[in-house]
Specification:
This protein is of the alpha/beta class. It has a single domain, classed as Vaccinia Virus protein VP39 (Rossmann fold). Strands 3-2-1-4-5-7-6 form a 7-stranded mixed beta sheet, with helices on both faces. Strand 1, helix 5 and strand 2 form a beta-alpha-beta unit. Helix 1 packs across helix 2. It is globular and about 35 Å long.
Length: 212
């Protein structure tokens, strides 16, 4: 192959890198969506309005472990870390190595851990990192497009791993997530955030206090 042919072959890669630099995290997110559209479920990250509304019910003073499924490029990570106590921890779990590598290279906070794995295994993952229960679990996973049985397993694993009084925070573009939550969480609050593209449905499934 001649040097001219090599240069022509490398041109698309140079263009991709330039576009990614211009778009920043949104470009990384778009690339992740194009590679794994079923698992990402959205073309753009959540808006700041969605982030603020989703996190406003968290009792940060009593939050030692915050877990996130499907963090993407970390849209929620920095807002969570800004509110998390100094002795708290944020563990994010994603099956997309593209996103996990990006997060490991861009977030240096010692409280932050990015895990390449499935949310179905959340209990094993947090125990491996020295935790018994999570205070809050946040999910942006597209429940409506997950393979059969996966949504149910994730919801069950999440309910099991949450401490009494904790909550499962879910943001979706359809109401399908509530179907997986309703059999486990007796109290589910719902709101809609219109200032998101597309408008987003928000759910808070509260883990009942254990009975004596």
């Amino acid at each position: 192959m001649t040097s001219t042919e090599l240069a022509r072959e490398a041109l698309p890669q140079r263009i991709k890198r330039k576009i990614k630099r211009i778009l920043g995290p949104s470009g990384v997110f778009l690339e992740g969506f194009l590679k794994h559209p079923v698992m990402v479920g959205a073309i753009l990250p959540s808006s700041r309005f969605t982030i603020r509304r989703m996190l406003r019910r968290v009792d940060w003073d009593n939050c030692k472990l915050f877990v996130e499924y499907g963090p993407g490029v970390g849209t929620f990570c920095q807002p969570v870390l800004e509110k998390l106590p100094r002795d708290g921890a944020l563990i994010v779990i994603d099956t997309n190595p593209h996103f996990i590598n990006y997060l490991r290279n861009t977030i240096t906070d010692s409280r932050f851990t990015a895990i390449l794995g499935s949310a179905e295994n959340v209990e094993e993952i947090i125990q491996t990192h020295g935790h018994e229960r999570a205070d809050y679990v946040l999910s942006g996973l597209p429940f409506s497009t997950l393979p059969d049985g996966v949504g149910e397993k994730i919801a069950q694993a999440t309910h099991k791993v949450l401490r009494p009084g904790g909550a499962f925070l879910v943001y979706q573009y359809s109401a399908r997530a509530r179907d997986f939550m309703s059999g486990l969480f007796k109290r589910i609050d719902r709101e809609i955030e219109p200032l998101n593209l597309p408008p987003c449905q928000l759910f808070w499934g509260w883990r009942d206090e254990d009975r004596a």
